[in-house]
Specification:
The structure is a homodimer of 371-residue chains.
Chain A: E1 17-21, H1 22-36, H2 52-60, E2 65-68, H3 71-79, E3 84-90, H4 94-105, E4 110-115, H5 118-131, E5 135-142, H6 154-165, E6 169-177, H7 186-209, E7 216-219, H8 225-230, E8 236-238, H9 248-253, E9 263-271, E10 277-280, E11 297-298, E12 306-310, E13 315-318, E14 330-335, H10 338-342, E15 347-352, E16 355-361
Parallel strand pairs in A: 1-15, 2-3, 3-4, 4-5, 5-6, 6-7, 7-8
Antiparallel strand pairs in A: 1-9, 9-10, 9-14, 10-13, 11-14, 12-13, 15-16
């Protein structure tokens, strides 16, 4: 194993268990800041880790703006001391009342939410007005992923105008998530991101021409944030997520990003069912299963391992080196997709300089904390 | 929606949220008992739901033997009052000390664990002896899944003898999980299960001939338990799991099993990004992603929905009826695989007769409770 993944004593670590290598995590945070030049331009997404302690590390480095997808994540951010939170999720149903409650509970926190449709905008405005509070709303733009948002164009102008005219709401800018921009080739990705920016900046100019304020443009994801950051525009806030912990998936997708996986899963062999097979305690209740079965993790110390079966608590691999392993032997696995992996764990073991130095709760894996 | 899935008032239910329809759950438990004739023959697997309240329902129906895969699940069972627990998982690493702790904490609970290799058997025996306690060990058999266990044969006899001879351990029988027997055709499945039983019963006879005791054979899964239950052998304990809640996957795989999905996910539309697209708040942090993306759930009230994109908090479907939906509209989704789905939720909303009657914690989704 690479020396950066040394753990002096694993005997007390329950497996399967997530390990955060704190030195690597801090390196990733520093690289993230270097790529944008100024921590004030960053708005990292906490869904990747859902941990208060990582937020506090980020705050200590000057990263004061943060992004969330759920109210539990937003509450975790507020509890960790964040004063500027973008809940990049269109509110419907009980989430409208939760937004009111959040504004009342943390009146000194700037909370921006997103919207792309008149009905929730109307409901949100009515709820805020009834409660005597206000909330900032970003217009959610569809830049090509076709998941949420309006395409830049006349309907987007009209909806932004509606937000600005709705009592209880403050038109606070644009939300530009471009998850579709995951071209492996950096030049191709840059071209695609700049095309998105061209459309978005034209829309922004038009909104301003019509007398509207567009104070911020919350833009980009791990693959595109360095490109958005290079655009000379003080209103752009960039939103990396995965690279805080990094993983195999984004490592392969974005070879230009020099982050190091900082969250691995400690797993043990529990059976050797055949001469070429090893069974690990690494089921899909402990490591994310949105990638294909054969691609859910990589073992740096067993690169030829080929997953042939995974169940809830078991991962069976084939390897030419299977005979070197027996029950109880340990390996570290790098998840292909770390964000849904961390959400599977109640807490993580934190290692620095080879020593276990802490345990952190994955606080926001619960979808409801108190709001 | 089918009347059995009526919820009178959903306005306070946060989405995505798991709903347990208690009347259907109780029907499933009754059907499970009917299929085996006597609740004493059952040893259902709690990994499907991980909830104390379901265990207490089962206990009230006379189901006194239970099965678990993790120490958190076993602890939840013991806390719920279960006195006979099979932890069907081969112990390595810190789990050996956890077994000692468990035996000390609940000395009146019969705990059986599984083993398939000399090294952990030796370690477990030493740990138990040092602590002055004993533990029952089932020999884990490989009946064709090639995941864990030894094939019935001479090596299995030798290892069972080793268990019996190891101080601190009590040879307690055989563990026969046959997850490979998922033939859709019942006759084919029955033939395969009876072939497994033929090998296992021959092994059992041989062990007895050699003077060993084989007090129990813990056998089968949801697809095979009715077949094992029909075998006239008082030592067989059958282990359905999924059918307690049931899901789309086992509904299609086992058409002979007349259970009804009792755990659904309430989801809301958050966007309509295009004339034929609906985006639900149903990402793979709320519904299991081990099935293929297009197969992760079924909407009974939108049968033509075809999933085209799923991310952590979003499910985008195409439907010819998309124009009938707008943000805030609700649907219920039946998970394809309910077991890893319930593990994604901290708690569930319990509905009976259309009313919300309770909230249950998914207690054992945490991998560590106190042992």
């Amino acid at each position: 194993m690479d020396a950066c993944y040394q753990i002096d004593d694993t005997s007390q670590i329950i497996s399967p268990g997530m390990i955060i290598f704190k030195d690597l995590l801090e390196d990733n945070l520093r690289k993230m800041i270097e790529l944008v030049g100024d921590p004030a331009r960053l708005r990292p997404h906490c869904k990747t880790h859902k941990m208060r302690e990582i937020i506090q590390l980020e705050l200590s480095l000057g990263i004061v703006k943060h992004k969330a997808a759920t109210f539990a994540e937003a509450e975790m951010l507020a509890e960790a001391g964040v004063k500027d939170i973008c809940l990049a999720y269109n509110l419907v149903g009980p989430n409208i009342a939760r937004a009111v409650e959040f504004r009342k509970r943390w009146p000194d926190v700037s909370l921006q939410v997103t919207a792309d449709h008149p009905t929730p905008i109307e409901q949100l405005g009515e709820a805020m007005t009834a409660a005597g509070v206000e909330i900032e709303v970003l217009l959610d733009l569809n830049t090509g992923q076709n998941r949420t948002g309006l395409e830049p164009g006349p309907a987007a102008v009209e909806l932004y105008q509606m937000i600005a005219n709705t009592p209880g709401l403050i038109a606070a800018g644009l939300h530009v998530y471009d998850g579709q921009n995951h071209q492996v080739d950096f030049q191709e990705r840059e071209t695609a991101v700049l095309a998105v920016w061209n459309d978005v900046s034209q829309l922004r100019d038009q909104l301003i021409t019509e007398g509207l304020k567009v104070p911020r443009i919350v833009a980009g994801a791990t693959g595109s944030f360095p490109i958005f950051a290079k655009i000379d525009d003080p209103d752009i806030e960039v939103c990396p997520g995965t690279c805080v912990l990094h993983d195999v998936g984004y490592g392969e997708l974005f070879p230009d990003l020099k982050f190091t996986p900082a969250a691995l899963i400690l797993t043990r062999v529990i059976s050797r069912p055949g001469p070429d097979r090893i069974t690990f305690d690494l089921g899909y209740k402990a490591i994310a299963s949105d990638p294909a079965m054969e691609n859910r993790c990589r073992f740096p110390d067993l690169p030829d391992a080929k997953a042939v079966l995974q169940n809830e608590e078991h991962l069976v691999v084939m390897s030419q080196r299977a005979n070197e392993f027996q029950p109880g032997d340990e390996l570290l696995a790098i998840p292909r997709h770390v964000c849904p992996t961390s959400a599977l764990h109640k807490s993580v073991t934190v290692v620095s300089g080879g020593k276990v130095v802490d345990h952190w709760n994955v606080a926001a894996r619960d979808r409801f904390i108190s709001v």
